[in-house]
Amino acid sequence: MNLLIVEDEVRLRNALANNIPWDKHGIEVVGQAGNGMEALRFIDRKKPEIILLDLQMPEMDGLTLAKQLRQSDPLLKIIVLSGYDDFAYAQEALSIGVMKYLLKPAGDEEILETVLEAAEKLRSELEQRHNEDELKQRWEQHLPYLVNDFLQGWLKGKFELWEIEQRSKYLQMNMPKGAQFAVAVVDMDPLPDTETRFSRKDMSLLQFSLGSIVQEYLQSTPCWVVSDYAGYTVVVYKLSGDEAPKEALQRINVLTEKLLFTVLSCLRLTASAGISGTIGGCEDLNKLYVQAVRALQNRIMLGHDLAIPYQEVQGREPEFVLQPNLEKALEIALETGEENKATDMLSTLWEGGMAKAENIEEIHEHILYFESLFVRMIQKQGWSVREVAGEDYVYFHNHRELMVKEQIFIWLQRMIKAYLTHARERRKSTSHDMIKTILSLVENEIDQEMTLHAVADRLYVNSSYLSRLFKQETGKAFSTYVMERKMERAKATLQEGVRVYDAAAAVGYRDVSYFTRVFRKYWGVTPGEVRS
User: Fold this and answer.
1) Is pLDDT at 60 greater than 60 in this prediction?
2) If residue 51 lies in a helix (H) or strand (E), which one and from where to where?
3) At 319, phi and psi to the nearest 5?
4) Is 49 helix (H, G, I), strand (E, B) or coil?
5) Which residues fall within 8 angstroms of residue 189, CB to CB, at 6 or more apart?
């Protein structure tokens, strides 16, 4: 701790500085001043934490100096050492924050003890302030997350009115009584097929970027920006009481349109927004949020890059007509691998249902219809929907990813291609297994006569299918392949010194003469010449 001694009497000042063993107790005397003005210059340069101060001094007395110092640094510890045993002096000194009032001639031990007490008190105050600052800093760091969590629950309608008022006050949200709100829900549109910078896996990153852009764009607008459970960016606009509801909503619509243009300029990707159709108070926030979400869902019919206001729908009962003949035709086309016909059947089913859908509820009904249709056809083959659909599987359990009719139709077209591709792969895999079995039979039973018909019977398939499959997979006719393997095996056996008769028997020839003719025709030499 640093100590400044302010005393106009030179001998006493030197005695205080030199006769007390300050350094043994961690106290350093950083200066001595003879009056208040001189003390101010020392304090500005040396920044002492403790001051030992006389009251009666020329130029500036001790009380005046103490008042000034306490105003500029409330933590500074001031100990008065005075020769005036006057209660009024002591009372005034203590009232302005002097820690202790000592009377001359105070002993060295008493002065040292008082200075050490001041040092300990200062340490305690600094530690407390540090802890308070740290707690305050932690609170400020966590406050945005606490506000976000509270707003999420509020939007979902989890709180009573008294809880909203209590929590908003606790979270310093500055919400005046009778406050009015409007809500907008903003979301990134689906990535276009031509997009090469990002994929569906990057959507969480894009949603985060969207939230940051909204925060920055609306920083001067009275509102709260929160991310909801579904990943949407939600803007809760705080409205002034002197603005008419329709004017407020019109202003928010214009502001939201400009916001979407900013998103497009920053990300070169579009976003859309749904805007509540009314304004309301604290108790209405959940209703306003639901309106905004429903408005956003209408981009399925209206398209992308739109700020969509909520409109109350006086809807008709949805009409849903089953078309079993078309469903069967689609199934047959898929099973027979006719992609063009399957696509035509899909288009006809689409035109008879989804194309006529007029609201979100009807669109969701038709999504469920097509999902169940494909699930049924896939599972009928004993396949896994996830395995067939691949990356498109996400749409089977997350309709929010399907945001416009065109996107839904393209997804269904991809499902046709995925079904046919999977079927081809399955057939190819089955074919490979069958070819492997045939090749193994040839190698293991090369010492026997082997015909295509006999192998087909063993594998329970017809010989025509097996002949075409074998040639397709190996590039050779079955008989040609068998001949090649027999001749190669016979040559290798003869080169080992085996007799011609035994070599013939080893590859399934019982007639040595016939074997010799075949061998010579194939290799251009007789078996005996190879053996010798």
Assistant:
1) yes
2) strand 50-53
3) -100, 130
4) coil
5) 269, 270, 271, 272, 299, 304, 305, 403
Residues 6+ apart with CB under 8 A from 99: 77, 78, 79, 118, 121
Phi, psi of 222 (to 5 degrees): -65, 105
Question: What is the Rg, in whole angstroms, of the alpha carbon atoms belonging to the chain?
Answer: 46
pLDDT (tens digit, 9 = 90+) per residue, 432-489? 678 888 888 888 999 998 888 888 888 877 888 788 888 877 788 899 989 998 999 9
Q: How far is CA 202 from CA 119, 188, 206, 209, 225, in A?
A: 58, 11, 6, 11, 22
Residue 19 is encoded by which pair of tokens?
A: 């006769």
Token pair 């002034």 is found at 240
What amino acid is encoded at 443 in this protein?
E
Residue type, 465: Y
Mean pLDDT (whole number) for 53-68: 83
DSSP code for 192:
P
* Inter-residue contact 488 to 506 (CB < 8 Å): no
Averaged pLDDT for residues 263-288: 91
Amino acid in position 502: D
Q: How far apart are CA 181 and CA 158, in angstroms?
A: 17
User: Average pLDDT of 104-124?
Assistant: 88
Burial class (CB in 10 A: 0-12, 13-18, 19+), 188: buried
Mean pLDDT of all residues in 275-282: 90
* DSSP label at residue 284: G
Q: Are 287 and 182 in contact (CB under 8 A)?
A: no
Other CB atoms within 10 Å distance of the CB of residue 67: 15
Beta partners for residue 19, in sequence order: none
Closest CA to 225 of 240, 239, 211: 211
Instruction: Tell me the pairing of strands 180-188 and 100-103.
Output: unpaired
* 283 touches 216 (CB < 8 A): no
Tell me how many helices (H) and strands (E) the chain has.
22, 10
92 CB burial (10 A radius; 0-12, 13-18, 19+): middle
